[in-house]
């Protein structure tokens, strides 16, 4: 669907602030945009912590554009952020404030009583949190968000997201410093982000300037202990409402979005899911059209037929609504030279795994993370130079005899151990296109092992980021294994006591051993839009 020229000119858009007085006496500020005449209109509501004038324009069209399409747009500063009163407490504060905001928006004279919610990341979870008996919005579009603070927001495989947690936490800390007029704190945080020193000094900066913030608390919690973390719930009636879920193959919150899709279906909803060629901050251009079509359909009763599932194929570079489940698997084979000879390590679909490989992890020069969903350079990446390192073991298939579709979540089962009480298994699955020297990174994953158990040779299971890619005949697939992915995750020190962070004098050289017998790289396939995550 293409967007027609707006019927309302930009000069006919009114913009002004309004405030909501909550039951506890706190005032929340919002910015409103709407046409000068012709109302009332259905409302689009965004609740966010970054300043209402910004309005998520890093990924979404400016609110005036939405107003020109015939909507009242309300962008609110959440409690304790922007110019709203109160103390910011993160996700836990939002449920009651969300419901009061919905009631207020519906009562506005420029609102016709219908309300749709939009926004991504934090602005996604504010759409979902409410008391169980609360009246739901007419529709909602939570993009790139999830409900589990551990698995969907801050860690995977037992390892904290390092640069993401620090960067986001410091952004919020700087906003708090601005609110209290502490320019020195704001400057210190900004310098650390600009020169990269936040990767080493970030925890101390968070502890000094925002000790009660979510990021500081997350980094203090054990990501391997699911019982210590909060998992939020969305009301079942809200999950049954028309819901548009937008995600990206290179977005860290993709598993959270897929979990929302599954929860909505289980509640009796019919959610619409789009996973595109997107990072967290860089979306595909047509995403705005998708959103507009969804809101027009559910807030203006414009009837448009639409499939419920839309996935971007990273190989064909086309959308598909019917990915084929793939029951594919490969064993790992090697002769001990997979870190040095790219022809030595093999992925074999027909024979059992065989051999042993050793990877030496030197914390002085940890293997960097590039591309993917966790690194500072998220997105597609050519990793041929990284695969040439002597601390990266590579296992490659023979040229494919026929096209295959990798559709689902890759996982590796392998026996592994180390000579120190701590190591990381950092995996990347790539495609080597026929006739090219490129190594196109497709998916990555990590497993952190700490304590005495790390020194035992036992079977490990590593989950990677879900993907959909069609490979052509003649292409090859490659699995790369390293012991670091810096700074996507902190460097494992090889000790159970020292925190995983930037390399230090207390970090040990670690020898990681891989027993390839019984190894298996396989896919948890998509099944009618559902992913078998565990």
Overall description:
Helix 4 (162-179) crosses helix 6 (198-209), helix 4 runs antiparallel to helix 7 (214-220) and helix 5 runs antiparallel to helix 6. The protein has helices spanning 63-68, 94-107, 122-125, 162-179, 183-195, 198-209, 214-220, 236-239, 254-266, 287-299, 384-387; strands spanning 13-21, 27-35, 41-48, 72-77, 111-120, 139-143, 155-156, 159-160, 244-250, 272-279, 309-313, 318-320, 329-333, 346-348, 356-361, 393-396, 404-418, 422-432, 440-450, 458-463, 467-471, 476-482, 510-527, 530-531. The longest helix is centred in the N-terminal third of the chain and has 18 residues, at 162-179. Strands 13, 14, 15, 17, 20, 21, 23 and 24 form an 8-stranded antiparallel β-sheet that branches. The protein has a 6-stranded mixed β-sheet with strand order 1-2-4-3-5-6, with helices on both faces. A 4-stranded mixed β-sheet has the order 9-10-11-12, sandwiched between helices. 20% of the residues lie in helices and 31% in strands. Mean pLDDT is 94; it is low at 1-6. The protein is α+β, with helices and mostly antiparallel strands and 534 residues long. Strand 5 (111-120), helix 3 and strand 6 (139-143) form a beta-alpha-beta unit. The protein is built from 11 helices and 24 strands.
């Amino acid at each position: 669907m293409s967007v027609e020229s707006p019927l309302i000119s930009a000069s006919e858009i009114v913009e002004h602030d309004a405030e909501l007085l909550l039951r506890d006496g706190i005032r929340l500020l919002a910015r409103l945009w709407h046409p000068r005449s012709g109302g009332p209109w259905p409302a689009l509501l965004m609740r966010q912590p970054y300043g209402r004038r910004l309005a998520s324009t890093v990924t979404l069209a400016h609110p005036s554009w939405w107003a020109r399409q015939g909507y009242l747009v309300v962008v609110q500063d959440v409690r304790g952020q922007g110019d709203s009163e109160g103390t910011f407490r993160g996700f836990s504060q939002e449920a009651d404030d969300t419901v009061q905001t919905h009631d207020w928006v519906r009562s506005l004279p420029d609102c016709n009583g219908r309300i749709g919610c939009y926004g991504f990341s934090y602005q996604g979870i504010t759409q979902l949190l409410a008391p169980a008996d609360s009246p739901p919005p007419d529709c909602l579009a939570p993009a790139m968000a999830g409900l589990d603070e551990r698995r969907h927001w801050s860690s995977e495989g037992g390892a904290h997201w390092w640069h993401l947690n620090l960067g986001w936490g410091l952004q919020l800390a700087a906003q708090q410093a601005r609110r209290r007029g502490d320019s020195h704190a704001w400057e210190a945080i900004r310098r650390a982000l600009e020169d990269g020193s936040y990767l080493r000094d970030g925890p101390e900066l968070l502890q000094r300037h925002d000790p009660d913030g979510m990021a500081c608390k997350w980094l203090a919690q054990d990501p391997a202990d699911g019982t210590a973390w909060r998992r939020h719930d969305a009301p079942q009636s809200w999950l049954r409402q028309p819901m548009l879920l937008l995600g990206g193959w290179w977005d860290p919150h993709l598993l959270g979005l897929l979990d929302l899709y599954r929860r909505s279906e289980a509640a009796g909803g019919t959610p619409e899911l789009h996973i595109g060629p997107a990072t967290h901050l860089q979306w595909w251009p047509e995403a705005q059209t998708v959103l507009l079509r969804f809101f027009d359909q559910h807030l203006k009763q414009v009837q448009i037929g639409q499939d419920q599932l839309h996935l971007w194929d990273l190989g064909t570079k086309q959308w598909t609504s019917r990915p084929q489940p793939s029951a594919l698997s490969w064993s790992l084979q090697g002769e001990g030279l997979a870190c040095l000879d790219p022809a030595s390590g093999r992925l074999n679909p027909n024979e059992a795994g065989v051999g042993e490989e050793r990877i030496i992890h030197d914390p002085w020069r940890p293997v960097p993370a590039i591309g993917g969903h966790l690194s500072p350079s998220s997105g597609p990446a050519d990793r041929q130079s990284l695969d040439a390192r002597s601390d990266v073991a590579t296992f490659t298939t023979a040229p494919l005899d026929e096209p295959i579709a990798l559709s689902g979540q890759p996982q590796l089962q392998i026996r592994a151990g180390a000579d120190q009480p701590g190591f990381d298994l950092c995996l990347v699955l790539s495609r080597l296109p026929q006739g090219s020297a490129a190594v196109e990174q497709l998916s990555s994953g990590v497993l952190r092992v700490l304590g005495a158990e790390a020194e035992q040779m036992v079977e490990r299971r590593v989950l990677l980021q879900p993907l959909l890619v069609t490979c052509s005949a003649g292409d090859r697939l490659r699995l790369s294994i390293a012991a670091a992915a810096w700074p996507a995750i902190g460097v494992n020190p090889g000790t159970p006591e020292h925190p995983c962070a930037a390399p230090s004098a207390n970090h040990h050289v670690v020898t990681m051993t891989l027993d390839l017998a019984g190894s298996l790289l396989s896919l948890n396939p998509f099944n009618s839009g559902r992913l078998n995550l565990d």
